[in-house]
Amino acid sequence: MPPSIGSVDQLGYVVKDVEAAMRHWSANLGVGPFFYFPQAAIASTYYLGEPTDARIAVGIAQAGDVQIELIQQLNPDAPSAYRDFLKERGEGLHHVGHFAKDEADFDAFLARFAESDVEPYHYGDSGPGSRFAYLPTEEHGGTVVEVIETAQWGGFFDSIREAAAGWDGSDPIREITIP
Fold first, then answer.
1. 76-106: b or e for each residue (b if 16 or more CB lie within 10 Å)?
2. Is residue 121 part of a domain?
3. Which of 42, 50, 69, 114 has the fewest CB within 10 Å, making it most exposed?
4. What is the count of structural domains for the chain?
5. Using CA atoms, how far apart are residues 52 and 149, in angstroms rounded to an integer?
């Protein structure tokens, strides 16, 4: 049995249309505002041990203590966990995520799973201090575990939480472009 992941900091959903999903979550569930990355900055990513050029669009918002991540793969033929999840299960909850505050925390998390013979099957980074890894723990309903190194993202994630705390329903989708 794999070790406990600790806190569940994020729920990640794979969707066919991230813009429609953000509108749904905002209008029907009162979650927002969403910070929208039309193309997430991913420096490198590997799926089943092989490099992949999978590109994603992402919307991120805060719902209470949990971050909501909506993911749409932009090039649906590229190998990835998102492509295969959508093909096998359709849209829905793909992962529960745990935030690792720094490199040591991230490495320790993966080491605990490695002791139970659970290794990442999809992993990558968005630059220094922003690694991610999906661990195959989907026996229950197809949901996997993600560990997210937040050293680079901490301040941004705090601003998402602050925006949600005082959100009045206006400007529900806020586009973020990465140079």
1. eebbbbbbebbeeeeeeebbbbbbbeeeebb
2. yes
3. 50
4. 1
5. 20
